[in-house]
Design a protein that fits this description.
Layout (H helix, E strand, L loop, with lengths): L3 H7 L11 E6 L3 E7 L19 H17 L9 E11 L8 E12 L2 E10 L2 E12 L1
Antiparallel strand pairs: 1-2, 2-4, 3-6, 4-5, 5-6
Amino acid sequence: MLDINEIQKIIPHRPPFLLVDRIVELEAGIKAVGIKAVTMNEPHFVGHFPGNPVMPGVLILEALAQTGAIAILSVESNKGKTAYFGAMDKVKFKKKVIPGDVLKLEVEIIKNKGSFGIGQAYAYTEGEIAVEAIMTFAIG
């Protein structure tokens, strides 16, 4: 399990753009499972949407990407590097995420070739899939 301080040693993101609170499962280069507690204190809820706060889908995807980056950048040869988005495919938003939800973020690296890879990503709330995607990344 990684706490917020250990996460910040792996990926360069910082608040308010650090969207993973802890890692509960990690197989370096293979899989990471993270947790994001969604709170009303987050700045995007001011305008998305007043009176009906919904976490923007792109931020859920970013949280998944950060979780995948933790998996891939935990490999010794990738330490100190940055993982960048290369592409997203088959993105599906299935359930809205609101303040009070706890996102479970799961990313499994299904292909890794050199400095490029692909991850299968799922974000869950209350045991139901909220978002799923296939994410391509490049390590730089």
